[in-house]
Amino acid sequence: MYNMLQYIDKVKTRSSRYDVQLELDDLTVEMLVNRARVDVQAATIPLFRQRFGRRVILGTTPTLVSNFNTGTVQYYTTTLPTDFIQDEVVLISTSDAAWEARKMDKREMYGVSRNSFNKPTVNSPVYCIEKDTASAVFSIIASKGSAGVGAYEISIWYTAALPYLQAYPVSGIADAERKMSYQWVELVVLCALTKCYEMTQYGQLRDLISADIDTMVSLMEEAYKTNIDRSKLLLPSRVSLIPNIPIMENMQGLQNGN
Amino acid sequence: MIQYSSMTLRQATDEIMLRVRKLSTSVNFDTQLASMYISEARRMAMAMSLPFKDYAYIKTFAVSNGVELPQDFVCEVRTLLKDPSVDEYSEARKADVREWWTLTNTVRPHSFNNATLNYPAYTIWGSDDSDAAVWNSKGMVVLVAPTTTVGIIEYYAEYGDMVLDTETLNVPYEFENLIILLALVSIYAKIGEPNRAVETYKSYQEGIMKIRLNEIARRNTETHNIQSLALPVPTQIQSIGKNN
Is residue A247, in this structure, part of any structural domain at all? Predict the structure, then answer.
């Protein structure tokens, strides 16, 4: 597992050594590595989102949204973590159990609240997620019917953005990367290298590394697809020993139009 | 006759140093770099061959609820779980996180599909954090249901970095040469020999294609065997005495 200093070492070692100190100081490389991490995450989220998953219990007390009040249904809102990208599962707990909440669109919120059979209750809560353009973070709006939603009651499973890493934080200990696969880390190094070559105007070297990146991403995709296909494939041991059985029997006496 | 044994890092580094010695200088190349490129090449060769040689990269890891997976984890092959009080394992189903609550909750359980000791389930997700400000785990976490079950996960594993010069490559025999070639490609690119890099890369591509074709041929043979097994089984009932 690399920390940021090791990332920087790796990039510097592999880049052409000429003018490295002059044009690529540690902080510049740090910036490029962080930018590369964002790029690589964006490219690989569709392949393995579980690597970027988090499960968090929201500790702040949600506030009542007064203008959404429909009498028997009340909505509460609170902010989501700043690294939120995409929600997967929301659980809203009562005193004795947690219940999975249904996701709803804002446009069906009023209808859901008024329905007789589909409205949110304590054991069938609902939620939606939105972001005001004036706000820096996403918010969740949740309801358990007429019951209030308190602090530590909303648990969310979501895909998270990777935190930025620093080589020289105040603590003095360089930030460590998450436990990503080696292939993923290699992709970050290559991607940072292309950015370094761009800065130092080594166009040909940048193209060479770009080809490597393409190969690696296509390999990841191929491995992913193979894995999906394999799950659908009948193993040889499961192949029927009696192949080619006709689906329909030849009905004796019913041929020739009889 | 020299009996075959897996190549060590020292041997691989030596071979690379010999093959590029006329081009390298102490400014642009050293043994540390060679070993770094060998480690990278080993991973690349594995990634190239995983789709058709997957059985060469399998590892086993003990799991229980909330255990963090190791860094070399690529993808699961299967998971076996059991009640700790009995000996017999059951193969666990993998559930997506979005169906995890439905499969595992005990308050409103499925009547037919709930995870049980005989029919356990598991899912894999990232860090399990009580507080959004802190990432508790650095890697992915396995969740099992019922939560008391323990067992093993078998998974495709990536190679880490090699450190000691006595460490062996531990790759399938036919990939050793490809690893050397791939490391050479990176080195030629680094020391400014793009033509040699392209030539070596072509040799590497030819090598991997040969292995791939061999593997496909082997699989086809397996299919033929299965068909021959199936042929003697009668597909029509023949009543004795009615052949005439």
Answer: no
Residue A148 lies in a domain: yes
Where is the domain boundary, A125, A152, A179? A152
Of the partner residues A51, A55, A176, the one whose CB lies closest to the CB of residue B129: A55
Instruction: Confirm whether A244 is domain-assigned.
Output: no
**Domain for residue A253, yes or no?**
no
What's the structural domain count of chain A? 2
pLDDT of residue A159: 93
Looking at this predicted complex, what is its ipTM? 0.76
Report B:175-204 residues touching A (Cβ under 8 A): 189-190, 192, 194, 197
**Whether A169 and A42 share a structural domain:** yes
Which residues of chain A, if any, have pLDDT below 50?
237-252, 254-258
Shared domain for A65 and A143, answered yes or no, is: yes
- Least Cα separation, residue A70 to chain B (angstroms): 28
How is residue B151 written in tokens? Answer: 């067992």
Using a CB–CB cutoff of 8 Å, tell me whether A61 touches chain B: no
Alpha helices (H) in chain A, listed in sequence order: 4-14, 20-23, 26-44, 109-114, 182-199, 203-232
Supply φ then ψ for residue B133, to 5 degrees.
-80, -20
Alpha carbon A241 to its chain's center? 43
> Which tops the pLDDT comparison, A33 or B188?
A33
Domain match, A65 and A137 both? yes
pTM, 2 dp: 0.78
- Residue finishing a domain among A128, A152, A176: A152
Q: Same domain, yes or no, for A10 and A68?
A: no
Residue-wise pLDDT tens digits, B191-213: 777 778 888 888 988 888 888 88
Q: Residue A204: what residue type?
A: Q
User: Which residues in chain A have their CB less than 8 angstroms from residue B235's CB?
Assistant: 242, 244-245
Q: Say if the Cβ atoms of B126 and A53 lie within 8 Å.
A: yes
Neighbours of A106 (CB within 10 A): 10
Can you give the residue range of the structural domain that contains A36?
4-48+163-222
Condensed to tens digits (0 to 9), the pLDDT of residues A86-109 reads 999 999 998 888 899 999 998 988
> Which two three-digit tokens encode residue A175?
């930030």
Determine whether the interchain pair B105/A98 forms a contact, defined as Cβ–Cβ distance below 8 Å. Answer: yes
Query: What residue segments make up the domains of chain B, in order of their start?
Result: 9-54+160-228, 58-157
pLDDT at position A231: 60
Residue B221 scores a pLDDT above 80: no
Both A64 and A148 in one domain: the answer is yes
Q: Could you tell me the sign of the dihedral formed by the alpha carbons of B37, B42, B46, B48, in that order?
A: positive
Local structure of residue B123 (DSSP, 8 states): E
List the 14-43 stretch of A: residues with Cβ below 8 A of B: 14, 16-17
Contacts of A85 in chain B (CB under 8 A): none
A99 touches chain B (CB under 8 A): yes
> pLDDT at position B199, please?
87
pLDDT digits (tens, 9 = 90+) for A212-227: 788 788 877 777 776 6
B138 contacts on A by Cβ (under 8 Å): 1, 176, 178-179
Rounded distance between C-alpha atoms, residue B56 and residue B46, angstroms: 9
